[in-house]
């Protein structure tokens, strides 16, 4: 590993800041991945980067789990550090409305290495988050789709700062049961995922799926960027025009905020509990129907 320069030590180890507009990555628009300068852990991809005119590289998302937030001692700002080595990256800001995610990671150029690689482009991961009633059902369906790398049950869209199954089921936190999906956009696109979402549940029943009743069971798409909002609304409009449903679609399309992973026993619930009555009577028919309709996109 190349030793850090004096400036890199000042920023990465002593939590300093490089002068604005001085970094070589400020205006970088090439495709690739941004690594931690100190330990080479992947932090961001070029998909996350945007131009903010602030003088430092700006990102509105991160590679999952790569960046850790640490409140400054004065409580005024939130520092971001590499999750692997703890090296100082910069600070994170919310509420500026510079992108649909309303988030800006302000990162020192010297804290990163940029690697423009074909490998990064062919293994790109994107995210989608859907609420379609009980997450046991939704997870079982999305796990069938070719190109989906990971499906995790959890909670999203609530007013409370924390979420767990008991609290969410009370209906008082405003969270929805959701699945957080990691997918390869070279194998499956977001349009297909949205179509799968609508096929997997009834989007015309407000705060209800079958006998599951409550705001946590609402139909909702948590979009991760402006393009996902556009696609979701376009699919809804097409379904309206085609008169696929007798009643109006009540699906909410809103910006993704924060995902709270569900308790471990919820994940892979259908596969782990095939003899459970709910799995046999509710989930299995959904899975069978999905396989019939979406045979072409199923994982082999």
Report on this structure:
- The chain has 300 residues and is of the alpha+beta class.
- The chain has two domains: 6-120, Metal Binding Protein, Guanine Nucleotide Exchange Factor, Chain A (Beta Complex), CATH 2.170.150; 125-297, Peptide Methionine Sulfoxide Reductase, Chain A (2-Layer Sandwich), CATH 3.30.1060.
- 25% of the residues lie in helices and 26% in strands.
- The protein has eight helices and 17 strands.
- The strands form four sheets. It has a six-stranded antiparallel beta sheet. Strands 16-15-10-12-11-17 form a six-stranded mixed beta sheet, covered by helices on one side. The protein has a three-stranded antiparallel beta sheet with strand order 2-1-9, with no helix packed on it.
- A hairpin with a 5-residue loop joins β6 (78-82) and β7 (88-94).
- α5 (190-199) crosses α6 (226-242).
- The relative contact order is 0.13.
- The mean pLDDT is 91.
Helix and strand sequence: HEEEEEEEEEHEHEHEHEEEHEEHH
Question: Helix fraction?
Answer: 10-25%
The number of distinct β-strands equals: 17
Largest sheet: 6 strands, antiparallel
Could you say what the CATH architecture of the largest domain is? 2-Layer Sandwich
**Strand fraction:** 25-35%
> How many individual domains?
2
Stretches where pLDDT is under 50 for at least 5 consecutive residues are none
CA-to-CA gap between the ends? 41 Å
Radius of gyration based on Cα positions: 21 Å
Mean pLDDT: 91
Structural category is alpha+beta
């Amino acid at each position: 590993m190349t030793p850090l320069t004096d400036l890199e030590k000042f920023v990465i180890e002593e939590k300093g800041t490089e002068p604005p507009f001085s970094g070589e990555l400020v205006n970088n628009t090439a495709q690739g991945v941004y690594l931690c300068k100190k330990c080479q852990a992947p932090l961001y991809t070029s998909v996350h980067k945007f131009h903010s005119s602030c003088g430092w590289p700006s990102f509105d998302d991160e590679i999952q789990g790569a960046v850790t937030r640490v409140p400054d001692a004065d409580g005024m700002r939130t520092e971001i550090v590499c999750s692997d080595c703890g090296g100082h990256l910069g600070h994170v800001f919310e509420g500026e409305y510079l992108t649909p995610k309303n988030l800006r990671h302000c990162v020192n150029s010297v804290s990163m290495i940029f690697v423009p690689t074909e490998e990064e482009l062919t293994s790109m991961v994107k995210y989608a988050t859907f609420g379609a009633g009980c997450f046991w059902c939704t997870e079982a369906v999305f796990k069938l789709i070719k190109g989906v790398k990971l499906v995790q049950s959890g909670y999203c869209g609530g007013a409370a700062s924390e979420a767990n199954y008991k609290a969410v089921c009370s209906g008082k936190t405003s969270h929805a049961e959701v699945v957080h999906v990691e997918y390869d956009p070279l194998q499956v696109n977001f349009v297909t995922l949205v179509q799968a979402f609508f096929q997997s549940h009834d989007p015309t029943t407000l705060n209800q799926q079958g006998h599951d009743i409550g705001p946590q069971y609402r139909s909702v798409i948590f979009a991760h960027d402006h393009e996902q909002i556009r696609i979701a609304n376009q699919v809804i409009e097409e379904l309206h025009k085609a008169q696929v449903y007798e009643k109006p679609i009540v699906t909410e399309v809103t910006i993704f905020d924060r995902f709270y992973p569900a308790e471990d026993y919820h994940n892979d619930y259908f596969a782990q509990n095939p003899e459970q009555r709910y799995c046999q009577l509710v989930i299995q028919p959904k899975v069978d129907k999905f396989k019939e309709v979406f045979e072409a996109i199923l994982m082999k």
